[in-house]
Amino acid sequence: MHIDARTLPNGSVLEADLCIVGAGAAGISMALEWIGSPRKVLLLEGGGLEYEPAMQDLYRGEIVGLPYYPLQAARLHYFGGTTGHWAGFCSTLDPIDFEQREWVPHSGWPVRREELDPFYARAQPLLELGPYEYAAGDWQRRDTTLVPLPLDPRVMWTKMWQFSPPTRFGARYRDAVIGARNVYLYTHANVCELEANESLTRVDGLRVRTLDGKEHRARARYYVLACCSVQNARLLLASNRRAPAGLGNAHDLVGRFFMEHIEMPGGHLVLTASNAVNTKMYALEFGQTKARGELALSAAVQRERRILNGTVSLEPGAPGEVAKSTFQWGTPELLAAFRKWEASGRVGPPPGGLPEPPPAGSARFFHLVTRQEQAPNPDSRVMLSTARDALDMPRAKLDWRLTELERRSFRVFYEVMGRELGRSGVGRVQILDWVRRDEGTWPSTLSGGWHHMGTTRMHDNPRFGVVDANCRVHRVDNLFVAGASVYPTGGAANPTLTLVALSLRLSDHLKRTLA
Amino acid sequence: MNRRQFLDVTATSALVAGLPSAGRVTNATAGLDLRALAQPDLLSILGPETVREIGLRYRELVPSENQMQALHAAVLAARPWSSRVPWLPRPSIGEMVAADFAAGRTIVVQGWVLSAIEARQSALFSLLSD
Question: Where are the domains of chain B?
């Protein structure tokens, strides 16, 4: 069922068993799980069913610290959320990502990778991916022309990725959600405050506002924040009527540990002429490729060199060509043009044109493009700005910070990779000049991947985490968080697959709790 | 000298210090033709212009090897002990390059991660093409 909150009489009260705030990948994944259940579910979406500039403007925020992408362009604020412009890259976190690594401060999940496996498998079809198979050998068995590079597994391995079409959750699941009798989707319903009881142990209701000046209440037995990492933190921090530091923030952790993936080119690979090196497994043709490999360092090398996780993709190119980082090529204007192009049914060529694919098998020169983990850092954080949005809610303020560990990890990756690709006879690696410097600075091309994580991190101990292993906000009995904001560390895999898996896991937990 | 150059030189000096002394090269280790050595496989990978630039840079970084004899001797000295035994097969340059990578005897020149022998071969190439 779908109701536009602007059509409700002012002061309406919406009631249900479960209230999910935010209809992006996390919120919709959860809502789908409840269709047909005896429980009444509210799904509150701040935006409409389509993109609206006025709603998007609510995501505008302040940037301090390292330069960052405009916040209102990095996330989408309408039904389907940021899946409205995501690229569909999916992979699992690695077992080492869940470990407490003594060289990575604040690392370690209260959940093991094996516990997530069944939920990863369930998340695959939601994202319209293939089978839950992420070993290079699995894909080689399916297609014998896909051959991993002859790497020493003690040093490097081929980490597989799968590609969603990409699933636009808004379009793909609109009918299912709206057609559900027990799921009530309210659009233009912006939650501005979580109202807690006096002892701050329960949420009694949500204050919901519309841009035309109406204010409603939502009440449920359980609440799930599924906005996004910036919004989840912003909403908790802004819920400060009874808790001056914000709800769930007794230990000053909400908004801290903001993480990204560092996505930048770091070097080149030239294949050896004498070898017929097959790189088909590493090729990507958007919309066609189902799975591809990227190069990753083994857990043993990460331990030995005390570095963060990361992967490197092989992008065909030409000598002398300068590869762009994610933020460089994906300008806000280009992303907006892509969104419009998709909304219009992909009429005509895509904005910016398609890259010219090199003739099959001829590519010998590749740009090496990194996607690297950021270490959890309490000083990298989302705060409240003094500026307010059109709903009178404090805007978000992002202070993105990196440490020497990210910088060193980036350099060491290329050094080890250069040796291993030379040893294996694959080719020779050239490391970009800035990567080789060890001065701790980043070039002006510094880029994330629009992957916001960590602002309501998971930890068993409330002194070190905002939510527990079940994603419940510590000491608030009926408030849960879904999305990448719960990640204690982000690994080197794009966050969507894992956040959908965690949402399914949370959904199971809530079903047991409500039963 | 900027910091990067310093690091490169430091790395190279350490590498050179770790290798058998060029002074101990005898007739028993001779046999690798200078002109053949100066035609590294890198030429087919990176092309002559890049290899020449690498060679020039290496010679700047390691002035003690900025002449043909010293470079030749250094390459010969880097051969494993078994190559000095007449009845054992001598490793090819390709095998020595692979052994360099496997043992971590690598050096970064102009950003390229190269085996120590490749870097010296590039220097020889640049000298011969000067």
Answer: 3-128
